[in-house]
Every structure is written in C-alpha cells, then in structure tokens.
Design goal:
The complex is a heterodimer of chains A (112) and B (108).
Chain A lengths: L4 E3 L2 E4 L5 E6 L6 E7 L6 E7 L2 E5 L7 E4 L6 E5 L8 E8 L6 E2 L3 E5 L1
Parallel strand pairs in A: 2-11
Antiparallel strand pairs in A: 1-3, 3-8, 4-5, 4-9, 5-6, 7-8, 9-10, 9-11
Chain B lengths: L3 E4 L2 E5 L4 E7 L5 E7 L5 E7 L2 E5 L2 E6 L4 E6 L8 E8 L6 E2 L3 E6 L1
Classes of the chains: A mainly beta (112), B mainly beta (108).
Chain lengths: 112, 108
C-alpha cells in the first residue's frame, strides 16, 4: 500500500515528556500538512510544507511544537514538554499539485 | 477569517432515504473538499470541486460559488454510509479550513 502512513498510531506519555510523530506521505506528493483533531471537532491546521520548505505555521502552535521535512519526503512533528491539553489525534495529509487530500490514519496522543 | 459551517450537526436516516448535508463558507475559495471520517480516525477524501457538480456512485456534491454554499447528497442511503462527513475549503492550497462535521447514522 502506498498511502500516507503515520507512526506511531498510539502514544501514551506522561506530562513533561517529549514525543515525536512521523509521517510518510505518498511519494510524488510535494505538499504535506499536519492537523490536530479533538473529539467532536474538525481538524485544526498546524503546519504546511511544500517540498522541504515549511510555508505556513498556525499561530495557535506554541514554540513547544516543531515540524520538519528535511528532504522533502517524510516529516516529523515533535512536541516538547507535553501538556494534558496536547492530547488529541494528530493527522498528516499529503497532496499532489492537483490539490486532492490524502490522509493518514492519524497518531493518537494521550498525555497523562 | 474563513468560517466553515455545516448543517445539520447530527442526522439519523432510515436505510434507503435521500440525504443532504450542507456546507457554507465565508470567503472566496479555490476549492472545496468533502471528506468522510469513520470511527477510529481515518479520513477519506470524497470530492474536490471548485464549480458545478460531481458524482461518484451514490454520492453527489454540488457547489454554488456565488452563494458560497456546497451540498453533499447521498442517494439510497445504507448503514455503511454511517460516518462523519466534513467539508473543508481552501483559497491557496496552503491552508484548509474544516467544518466541525455532520455525524450521519443510517438505520437498517
């Protein structure tokens, strides 16, 4: 299967720990997005890459959050000093130049 | 600020019924997406449209650019259509703005 894959699917961590999520987009897709979704809400934009360049970042994203896409292929999202409010589903999506969105299954984070 | 609103928030239908879900947005867009999300998280893209109408099987999506409104229709609904349906729009392709979703339950 060559869809968008995310790892890990589930992460339980203690408050204050750092966590890192990885996203492998569909290989030809130059656009990559990270979203956060909490229960009963639609996805909330976090950041956007075109190839390796991070072109947009949500103002809601604190400096504890950082994302990279070093070679324009896979991306990582790191959350430092996690807080309970960070508990959510973290979704990655990729898109070709035509604009269709392809989502991964998400990485669910629980901060205790 | 771009606001995307969906209605209804929750919808229960009998199998076989025709279903309509509505989406309104507040600013000019380049494309509107309809997405389906099943329990457990996975999101699947159903349609991307910037004008007119698209059809895929029993699903039909329409958009009226002047009225900033889109609809998703499901004909001959089936219990496997039960899911959350989300609309999302974009102006530049850099950011997408999502509605909060419509939770659909189709009863056999």
């Amino acid at each position: 299967d060559t869809g968008v894959s995310q790892d890990p699917r589930h992460k339980i961590t203690k408050r204050g720990q750092n966590v890192t999520f990885r996203c492998d987009p569909i290989s030809e897709h130059n656009r990559l997005y990270w979203y956060r979704q909490t229960l009963g809400q639609g996805p909330e934009f976090l950041t956007y890459f075109q190839n390796e360049a991070q072109l947009e970042k949500s103002r809601l994203l604190s400096d504890r959050f950082s994302a990279e896409r070093p070679k324009g292929s896979f991306s990582t999202l790191e959350i430092q000093r996690t807080e309970q409010g960070d508990s959510a589903m973290y979704l990655c999506a990729s898109s070709p130049w035509t604009g269709e969105l392809f989502f991964g299954e998400g990485s669910r984070l629980t901060v205790l | 600020k771009n606001e995307v609103e969906q209605s209804p928030q929750n919808l229960t239908a009998q199998e076989g019924e025709f279903i309509t879900i509505n989406c309104s947005y507040s600013v000019g867009i380049s494309a509107l997406h309809w997405l389906q999300q099943h329990p457990g998280g996975g999101i699947v893209s159903l349609f991307m449209l910037s004008s007119g109408k698209k059809k895929h099987g029993r699903l039909i999506a329409t958009i009226n650019i002047q009225e900033k409104h889109s609809s998703l229709h499901i004909t001959a609904s089936h219990p496997r259509d039960s899911a959350v349906y989300i609309c999302a729009d974009t102006n530049t392709g850099n950011q997408f703005y999502f509605g909060t979703g419509t939770s659909l339950t189709v009863i056999p």
